[in-house]
Batch of 2 targets.
Target 1
Amino acid sequence: MLYGDNATHFYTSWTTDNFWKTGCFNVRCPGFIQIDKRKIYLGGRVSNISVYGGPIFEIPITLTLDPMTKSWWLSSGQTSIGYFPAALFKNFESASVVGWGGRTRTDVGNTSPEMGSGYFPDRKMTHSCYFRSALIEDESRKIFPPKPDQTSSFSDVTKCYGVIYYGDQGGYLGAVLLFGGPGRVCGD
């Protein structure tokens, strides 16, 4: 286990080759530069956890390209957490693919953990993990929600975890993506 417990943690990771030879979580190796360590720090436990059918807690997250430095800045609300330096990635002055979702991890042969509330997405944001107001920014700095034909959903173990992009729901919700699942015995 990365943190030695079963709690939910705020983390980031990077790789240039899908974690074959490069990549790192948080600041465990050179890469992500964390500038705020008092309000939000990578690896920190998330204390307010939503409950199925009950209270919902949200964390506002943005990842933005600085047009001058070409570094990618991670922020939560008005707090800049840190950045991925431009030198970390070759030719990464723009992104042709953007992803939202979740990740679980267990040792081979062990039961896979729940993701989110442990329920598959079902159009009800009170039932599974979600992203709302999922937006992308193009080269001209225009911000917009991805159209359904611009998206694809991926789960490497569909019997244990699901993901559905519902598109732009308008108003407060904006573009919505729901994901999660019960885990259990998922295979290798």
Target 2
Amino acid sequence: MYTYMLFQAAMSSRRVVVFPSSAELGPVLARLVCDRAQTALNAGRSQFTLGLSGGSLVSLLSKELPAQPGLDCSKWVVGFCDERVVPFDDPESTYGLYKNQLFSKINIPENSILAIDHTLPVEECAEDYARKLNQVSSNEDVPVFDVLLLGMGPDGHTCSLFPNHPLLQETQKTIAPISDSPKPPPCRVTMTLPVVNAARCVVFVSTGGSKAPVLKEILEGGEGPALPAARVAPSQGELLWLVDEPAAASLALQVERPGPGARL
């Protein structure tokens, strides 16, 4: 019953938007982030809060965000949806990748980038990072991000929330440690589902034909326990899936196919 309710909630609020390729998807994603930033600041909030994920999103955002006309990130605060507990110069460090490829190209203040302390043991690292993310919305029990950008693995995992892992049931912690990740490196910290589902806007980006089977299961429902990405259903916010044609190849549901220059 719980799985069915999650699936119905996600269906009621989500948009599935399909692009011919990531080349067409990237500029729309960048415009979406900038538009939501302007919306947040126009609403009187002092900052725009953005949660980043790694993988292909790093190169996509690093190419498209700096190309946005009049980009001003001076009131942005950036956190990470999950992070590997490795030094920042390690190729597995999501912060390190963004620092090298994106942050040097935009005018975001260094103290507005919330990074983990990778020198701490994983449990302490998670507690320390949870304290940092509480700066995002100090009046809330759970940090409320304006936008979270998520990826999805071929197994249906998102953040560092993996299928059948006990962290899927976590309701108290906002940031949780994981020391037995099925994907290396084993030690990570991750946002939990309460934080993800508190966001004002959650955007999944999924590309490539290898994602087609699991994307169909997540978006159209499948037997058995809901995969981690299927458990993302923002209670008050938007849920958008931005995918390319190869990833969407098996979908039977109704989707949007915007034209060039579209805004979402």
